[in-house]
Amino acid sequence: MPDYTYLLVGGGMTADAAAQALHEADPAGSVALVGAEPHPPYDRPPLSKALWKGEPEEKIWRKTAATGAVLHLGRRITAIDPRAHTATDDRGTRYRFKKLLLATGGAPRRLPLESDQIIYFRTLDDYRRLRALASESVRFAVIGGGFIGSEVAAALRMQQRDVTMLVPEAGLGARVFPADLAAFLVDYYRGKGVTMRMGEGMAGLDRRAGSCVVRTTVGSELVAEVLVAGLGIQPGVELAEQAGLRVDNGILVNEACRTSQPDIYAAGDVANFENRALGARLRVEHEDNANTMGRTAGLNMAGRATPYHHLPFFYSDLFELGYEAVGDVDARLETVADWKERFREGVVYYLKQGRVRGVLLWNTWGQVDHARALIAEPGPFTPQDLKGRLPL
């Protein structure tokens, strides 16, 4: 039975960040990573951003092996025995560990049809498939108007492909952006040549003559050869549930990233953590959280007490526009926009009972730490107080 000091379950950015921290904090400890993909850890954001703009694929690799970690790739842990400190993979191999990290991320929500014409854009292999198809003259439909859907539609259109977005909301990114900004983005994407079908959701899905046929909620059809589904993910909590850990919208962890079992930790997309600045539990599915929380978990596993009080940010590129966002950016909150140039450059503040809960930095750069500091202030703030507050 392979015997390791530290066992990392998951092969993404979070596991790599933990491996780097473990190598730093306990170089004598043995580390193993078990990942379902055949590839070692890599940066995911370039899959929908920089790689479409010409960045070479070799720049995404994380160099996990340089930490000395043993990589067991193309394998999936299927069971954990917390008492015996063992984990079993899908080939029947059992691993012994002293400390274990669950960095299992999440699985894409799937459409009600099994077809190789549907791409759930999450992995390097998904990118490679879509990139190959983007060299062909086929029709693409992007289902969903959120984070991934918006980026993929822009990426495909930059390759001069025929792209239609099917979005159930009235605006693009409507759950995050204020209604007027979400409406502007619809027009902006139309101006870039993307066919925008707004207020239409999916009611059914069939195949017909080599194409996918989406039946929509307004009684219409959308026909395309390739569907890209950007419907979000479901956190990968199955192992945690099997091991008897506390689960509620992810795996519940304390400020040390420790689960309800003292020698098992969780971090990244799958972890539900308490954030002091917002006074609330969060589960964050973005790069900054993966890197920072993965590192914090690794340090704590190695005995270097490090509380996770970080407020993660995320970012996106939408053709020539881009943004960074910090905290709770929820369109249902009160929003205050401070535009330098309307919809092209500015800051949107998200308030609840006079307190800033989130900040959207729209084509405004280098202000993430200032936004975090503002969210940490108790307020109360009036809309007038926030005019000109950022950038500093």
What does this structure look like?
The protein has 392 residues and is α/β, with parallel strands linked by helices. The protein folds into 3 domains: 3-107 and 234-301, FAD/NAD(P)-binding domain (3-Layer(bba) Sandwich); 110-229, FAD/NAD(P)-binding domain (3-Layer(bba) Sandwich), CATH 3.50.50; 320-386, Enolase-like, domain 1 (2-Layer Sandwich). Helix content is 21%, strand content 33%. It contains 8 helices and 25 strands. The strands form 6 sheets. Strands 1, 2, 3, 4, 5, 6 and 18 form a 7-stranded mixed β-sheet that branches. The protein has a 5-stranded parallel β-sheet with strand order 8-15-9-10-11, covered by helices on one side. A 5-stranded antiparallel β-sheet has the order 21-22-25-24-23. β21 and β22 (321-327) form a beta hairpin. α1 packs parallel to α6 (287-301). It is globular, with a radius of gyration of 22 Å. It starts with a strand and ends in a 6-residue tail after the last helix. The model has no long low-confidence stretch (mean pLDDT 96).
